[in-house]
Specification:
9% helix, 13 strands, mainly beta, 4-stranded antiparallel beta sheet, binds zinc ion, 6-stranded antiparallel beta sheet, DUF1963 domain-containing protein
């Protein structure tokens, strides 16, 4: 099956930044009242992903953008659970987004909502995972998964650069799949807790300077969002047969 792997950069795009997928930062043109609030702690949630439509996300309508938020509160909000209300996914039409930068929600201005360092998708690199349709289905089945050869179960080799991708069957942690979110479901995108950035490590250190939370490892991989320490965030469509996708985020360790 075809999949798409993003390259990441902290260098702002030459194109209109509101048309380029990114991690962290703020969603361009989203009115303050549309930012979702955590159902558990009551604070405006942190933007995690802004995903633009394209061949890598064929379920996202061309005139829409997929926005993913999660609670970054350091308390006990269950951000990993797609039903908890401590994360949220929006499918927003371009018509709803203002052309101008807007005022940010009060929680963002006063620092209660943490913003993540912004990292742009430079390119989307297509490839093929070489799996049959049957193998792909088994990869997302909590029972059949464990009957697959290890070379298929963990073909990603737990390499950070491969654990972030759009399309194909989910690449799991060592715990394999479970039943959250409910089926039917189809993986749209997954992102590892560490992001391999193409810029120099020094430039990355400068980019995140002073945020007090982000970590950069010796290989220059950035860990910024709290994805249960070393977890992976999975964005699923849980209405794959419907005209419009229904987005659901879960975080797995
Ligand atoms: Zn919360």
């Amino acid at each position: 099956m075809q999949l798409w792997t993003p390259t990441w950069t902290i260098t702002p795009p030459r194109a209109d930044p509101s048309s380029v997928s990114h991690f962290g930062g703020v969603p361009y043109g989203l009115p303050a009242e549309r930012w979702p609030v955590c159902a558990q702690c009551g604070v405006v949630m942190t933007p995690l992903l802004c995903l633009e439509p394209g061949p890598w996300l064929p379920r996202v309508p061309e005139d829409h953008v997929a926005l993913v938020f999660k609670c970054e509160d350091e308390g006990i909000c269950d951000f990993w659970d797609g039903e908890s209300g401590a994360n949220a996914c929006l499918l927003v039409s371009r018509a709803e987004l203002a052309a101008q930068p807007l005022l940010l929600p009060a929680d963002v201005v006063d620092g209660r909502t943490r913003l993540l360092p912004q990292v742009w998708v430079g390119t989307w690199e297509p490839s093929d995972d070489g799996l049959t349709a049957e193998q792909s289905e088994a990869l997302d089945d909590p029972v059949r998964f464990w009957d697959l050869p290890e070379a298929i179960q963990f073909s990603h080799g737990f390499q950070t650069a491969r654990l972030t991708k759009a399309g194909g069957a989910p690449y799991w942690t060592g715990n394999g799949p479970d039943d959250d979110p409910p089926r039917p479901r189809h993986l749209l995108f997954q992102i590892d807790s560490a992001i391999m950035v193409s810029d120099s490590r020094d430039a990355l250190v400068e980019h995140v300077a002073g945020d007090g939370f982000s970590e950069i490892d010796d290989d220059g991989a950035l860990s910024a969002a709290n994805l249960a320490l070393d977890g992976i965030a999975y964005l699923f469509d849980i209405t794959p047969q419907a005209a419009r996708p229904t987005l659901r985020l879960v975080v797995k360790r």
